[in-house]
């Protein structure tokens, strides 16, 4: 394919000036030269390998988080509040007297009416009040302390969870990330080596969390039903808590040079 451009030139033939058409052939490549653009070579950008590594660290559960309280029922709100205050004070003083108890705090106080049916109508028959506190203690001391608390006036245990300390969890998270990074790097080296490819650089790193699993809750239904349960002799085996982390690497590579 070619383009033709029309131009003209003047000839002097005697006294007469004549304009004659002339044609010039312009190649397609020449006409498009001004419009051509350089397309960057993006082949190397797609030469990447994505690998994900996993790291785990097991640490002992050294802390028990306990939630317990006092629940009182009575005919009038004044009597209920007085009895609640008396029993709650005794339980709190007991917990404060134990040097092993830490992070003691009140989490809930409530006073609610109780209803019954009378003459086809719903009427107030009394009141119910609760005071819930939360604290931490070593797992091996849970049984004895709960036994003392029940005898002092506690009537309910809302939950006991066994966890590692915050400091141990933070340190284990770093270890898990380190292990996951090394695992991902090892996988990349193995894959590229097997395919005779050479690693150039790591172009991206993604840390997909390093969080511990949900704490382990101890079943305490028997205590909730029987406040006179003897918990002092109940053994508690805290076990270990697993911290897990995932690290994803994107590695750029190139073919290995051969002699």
UniProtKB/TrEMBL annotation:
A Pfam match is SIMPL
Q: What name does this protein carry?
A: SIMPL domain-containing protein
Q: Which InterPro entries does this chain map to?
A: 26kDa_periplasmic_antigen, SIMPL/DUF541
Q: Which GO terms describe its biological process?
A: DNA damage response
Could you tell me which species this protein originates from?
Dendronalium phyllosphericum CENA369
